[in-house]
Design goal:
With 439 residues, this protein is mostly helical. Among the domains are: 139 residues, no CATH class; 151 residues, no CATH class. It contains 21 helices and two strands. The protein has a two-stranded antiparallel sheet. Strand 1 and strand 2 form a beta hairpin. The longest helix is centred in the first third of the chain and has 27 residues. 36% of the residues are buried. The C terminus is likely disordered.
Length: 439
């Protein structure tokens, strides 16, 4: 008996609900723990798709069901746009690697449409991701604490500054974020916060209690500040205001009581903006932007301003088709050399804006497609999870403005995975009748 037959028979012993649900729930839980796990999850989804009748259900979904399929087609087309750009890119090796990173845009829609749709409870998937994010954050604190503890002459000391790097801190920024680059982990925490906000509303049931969710929100908010992601804090502020307004609009005693934590968080946010120099310096950077010399760029804000300005020049020359996905960084660095911004080349920087990056690589068609992917479902779809999907879109879209999030597997997989789940299950009504488990 071959391995494929053994694998298929073992999967058949599970009910549809357990088989599909377990895989997706486990994936959601482990997303915050690093990109090394993600390729294995893609393979796991693929094996389930092949051996449990997923191919047939995918074909039926795209050719017969028609429900929301247009938006998943957009995601697949977005991948093929990148693939077609290899036909005119000079750096084929770089372009091929980028195509590999973005493979989730193609595979995740195919694999998830092959899932038996009545088998997945999106609530459990969201709970799993929230739990995984909380545990990942706790581990970050634990690892930072272990790194800070040491022995000196037989005495236990606690020093948060790494040896030889007194200006750094084990509880701050990339030293603290051990599983992902801080911007990506901040994005995961923001989505976990949005899930918590969503379940605070009385009509959304959760096995997490009210007090646990409030404490979790405070804990994750503190973690978000320690990650020091400016884009993350901007989104956090938007979410806090949005949820505070949502509760106060009901004009009930309970709603006002729920709004109190958000008012407190806004106050804390405003205080930290004033006191923390990292965020206070942003204002000064914009003031001196016009005085930057061609030899020196002194901050992340200044760097982004220069990168975006030079990117616009590249877009003007390649408006319709872009330069090809493999030549984006080469064109950017060539443009930087002309202006004397050598630090951009030395640090091997990308554009730090996914919309501009897509425009440079694919032209006007690519960026329009990206905007349609983000805004189309918000305009056309409605359903139980619509509000949470809007928050998900806000989180992703703001981060795309400040980072080239789709240059890393963590960003591509996170977006494709939850985007497809929302599209498939936002307004899906499960059939409660018993099903035949035969393939």
């Amino acid at each position: 008996m071959n391995l494929s037959r053994i694998f298929s028979q073992r999967l058949q012993r599970l009910s549809w609900s357990k088989r599909d649900q377990y895989i997706i729930v486990v994936i959601a839980f482990f997303i915050p723990f690093g990109i090394r796990l993600l390729p294995s999850f893609i393979v796991l989804l693929g094996l389930s798709w092949i051996f449990t009748g997923g191919i047939k259900r995918t074909i039926e979904y795209f050719f017969y069901l028609k429900e929301n399929r247009f938006f998943l087609f957009l995601l697949i087309f977005f991948y093929f746009f990148h693939l077609l750009s290899l036909l005119y890119t000079e750096n084929l090796r770089t372009g091929a690697f980028d195509i590999q990173v973005k493979l989730s845009f193609l595979l995740i829609p195919l694999f998830l449409t092959g899932v038996h749709r009545d088998s997945v409870d999106l609530n459990e998937v969201l709970h799993s991701f929230l739990s995984g994010t909380i545990i990942a954050a706790i581990l970050c604190y634990f690892i930072a604490t272990c790194n800070s503890v040491g022995l000196d002459s037989g005495e236990i000391i606690f020093d948060v500054h790494p040896d030889g790097y007194f200006w750094e801190n084990f509880f701050f920024y990339d030293r603290f974020s051990v599983f992902h680059q801080p911007s990506y982990f901040a994005m995961f925490i923001l989505f976990a916060l949005a899930i918590g906000f969503y379940y605070l509303k009385s009509n959304n049931e959760s096995f997490f209690g009210y007090r646990f969710i409030v404490i979790t929100m405070l804990f994750l908010s503190v973690t978000l500040f320690l990650l020091s992601s400016r884009a993350g804090l901007l989104v956090w502020f938007i979410l806090i205001i949005a949820f505070g307004l949502t509760f106060t609009q009901k004009r009930t005693r309970k709603s006002y009581r729920l709004a109190i934590p958000f008012v407190i968080l806004i106050g804390v946010f405003s205080f930290l903006l004033i006191k923390i120099s990292r965020y206070n310096n942003v204002k000064e950077e914009f003031k001196v932007y016009e005085n930057y010399t061609q030899e020196s760029i002194n901050s992340s804000i200044g760097t982004r301003m220069i990168l975006w300005e030079e990117t616009v020049h590249i877009i003007r020359r390649n408006f319709f088709f872009g330069v090809g996905q493999g030549d984006i960084k080469m064109e950017l660095h060539n443009q930087a050399k002309k202006k004397g911004y050598l630090q951009i080349v030395e640090k091997n920087l990308n554009i730090h804006n996914q919309f501009l990056e897509t425009f440079v690589g694919l032209g006007i068609g690519g960026v329009i497609l990206l905007i349609m992917i983000l805004l189309g479902p918000v305009i056309k779809l409605k359903g139980k999870y619509f509000e949470l999907f809007v928050y998900f879109n806000i989180i992703v879209s703001v981060n795309l403005v400040f980072e080239s999030m789709f240059n890393r597997l963590a960003g591509v997989f996170f977006f494709a995975f939850f985007y497809c789940l929302f599209i498939l299950f936002m307004n899906h009504v499960p059939n409660t009748k018993p099903k035949n488990n035969a393939l």
